[in-house]
From TrEMBL:
Name of the protein: 15-cis-phytoene synthase
NCBIfam families per UniProt: HpnC
Enzyme class: transferase
The keyword Transferase appears for this protein: no
PANTHER family named in the record: BIFUNCTIONAL LYCOPENE CYCLASE/PHYTOENE SYNTHASE
Pfam families in the cross-refs: SQS_PSY (PF00494)
Organism in which the protein naturally occurs: Anopheles coluzzii
GO MF entry, a single one: geranylgeranyl diphosphate synthase activity
EC number: 2.5.1.32
The UniProt record lists the keyword Magnesium: no
A GO biological process held by the record: carotenoid biosynthetic process
Keyword annotations from UniProtKB, A to Z: Carotenoid biosynthesis
Signal sequence segment: none
Length: 201
């Protein structure tokens, strides 16, 4: 297959590590059969294999293999995946998937029927705010990588981080009501983010 031959050539020419590819395949396979996650640790483990490999491969392409940079990249990628899960609660429900840990739903006495009913009342807001805050801290912990990396890669990473921050702010401002309106980035957001990313060099 041409696609596989091209991938093999890219792996060889850039000396890319194979583990990220194995991790991605593992996550894709899991996503076919696993629809619920009991604990936050389970969700993070999924992100470790579904999101973190992308960041690690990008760093490998630029010859960046410092352990601290890899750790910050993992934090950013996991946080971005979690943000996507929070954005897409309703979309994922339509696919019979829930990525919010069941432990957290139970803690805030939220049943799956509340998600099915697009109901953001009761303890939905504090539950979502707890998810948002935990994710924000994870994203912030990895954010210094945007200044460690130089040139275009650093600029693009700063934009990605700021995009995640903007979505988290929109989620927070809405009280986590992703049923009424899914938060997205607008052109105004992009202008503001690009200006900030350039200044943060």
């Amino acid at each position: 297959m041409p696609l596989m031959r091209n991938l093999a050539a890219a792996i060889s020419s850039h000396a890319l590590p194979m583990q990220p590819f194995y991790d991605l395949l593992s996550a894709f396979s899991q996503d076919v059969v696993k629809k619920r996650y009991q604990s936050f640790a389970e969700v993070v483990d999924y992100c470790r294999r579904s999101a973190n490999p992308v960041g690690r491969l990008m760093l490998a392409l630029y010859g960046e293999n410092d352990p601290r940079s890899l750790a910050m990249s993992d934090g950013i990628c996991t946080a971005l995946q979690l943000i996507n899960f929070l954005q897409d609660v309703a979309i994922d429900w339509d696919k019979d998937r829930i990525y919010i840990p069941l432990d957290d739903l139970q803690k805030f006495r939220i049943r799956e029927s509340q998600i099915a009913g697009r109901d953001a009342t009761g303890l939905w807001r504090p539950m979502m705010l707890a998810q948002i805050e935990r994710t924000r801290k994870m994203l912030q912990a990895g954010a210094p990588l945007g200044k460690v990396l130089k040139g275009r890669l650093g600029l693009e990473l700063r934009l990605v981080i700021m995009g995640g921050e903007r979505i988290l702010k929109k989620l927070h401002d809405s009280g986590g009501d992703v049923f009424r309106q899914r938060p997205v980035l607008t052109w105004r957001d992009w202008i503001y983010m690009f200006w900030r990313a350039l200044r943060a060099r």
